[in-house]
Amino acid sequence: MAQTSSAVGQGSTGQASAPGRYAIFITGHASPYTEEKYGGYGQLLETLLREPGEEWERFVVLEGKFPTAEQLAKFDGFVLTGSRHDAHAGEPWILQLIDVLKEAFAKKQRILGVCFGHQVLCRALGGTTGRSTAGWEMGLREVKVDEKLRAKPYGAGLPATVRVYESHQDQASAIPPGGELLGASERTPIEIFAVGDVALGFQGHPEFNLDVLTDLIEDRRAKGVLTDEEADAALESAYETTADTKAIQEFCIAFLKGKHVSEVQAEKPLDEELEKN
């Protein structure tokens, strides 16, 4: 069963309007700590992207809980979470998700994917993904924003370089046909891509705060996924400076909802909102 939340308000013009409807596809579960304190990846992304007057639902597609065709048709856009799973794998739920994304894209329903979501969206639209030869990318990273993105209505508020939390060992290796490369970093050549004004992939985690990232790094250290050296380096980068969460938040909202970034109404500090959930 889908999880639903809603709010009543006005659109960005100040006039009453029909609320936008958005669905989050949960493709992975967070640690027990993050699930308990923040509500998991779905809640983190809803907190990041929600504006007044909207309806949001969540579907745990990782467990095969997909919306029906009738449900799919009612949404204006979809958001894909991160996951420990491989976007290039052949698990049945991943293949079903790819079919759903193809259908949504064909109907011009907007799609925003982060981390695993970025990768599986790339694959669904004809790009390629796989394991990075650079190994794990963990911590705070600088992403160079292409001028093409900064010239778009939804990217107008972005600086030339943004700092974002990252946690991945897979990556998109070739963008889909007709797509644009809009951001890159030293170790990840495809950080941001878009296909028209319908699909956007973002490799980083704009929904994370420092607490969530720290917990994830320590969890992976404890499980032997990261060496002490890798975990310490990731933490050092994360605590050295701050992420550009606000600018990235507004950019993601503007894309998903077809707005100019100046129309975005996400005014509360993100960490303050996260602590309430």
Structure description:
The chain is α/β, with parallel strands linked by helices and 277 residues long. It has a domain of 190 residues: Rossmann fold. The protein is 34% helix and 23% strand. The protein contains ten helices and twelve strands. The strands form two sheets. Strands 1-3-2-4-5-12-11-10-7-8 form a ten-stranded mixed β-sheet, sandwiched between helices. A two-stranded antiparallel ribbon has the order 6-9. A hairpin with a 7-residue loop joins strand 10 and strand 11. Helix 1 packs across helix 2 and helix 4 crosses helix 5. The longest helix has 15 residues. Belongs to the peptidase C26 family. InterPro entries: ChyE-like, Class_I_gatase-like, GATASE.
List keywords for this structure.
10-stranded mixed β-sheet; about 280 residues; 12 strands; Rossmann fold; globular; alpha/beta
Write a brief caption for the model.
By secondary structure, the chain is an alpha/beta fold. The chain has helices spanning about 30-40, 40-50, 70-75, 90-105, 115-125, 145-150, 210-220, 230-240, 245-255, 270-275; strands at about 5, 20-25, 55-60, 75-80, 110-115, 130, 135-145, 160-170, 170-175, 180-185, 190-195, 200.
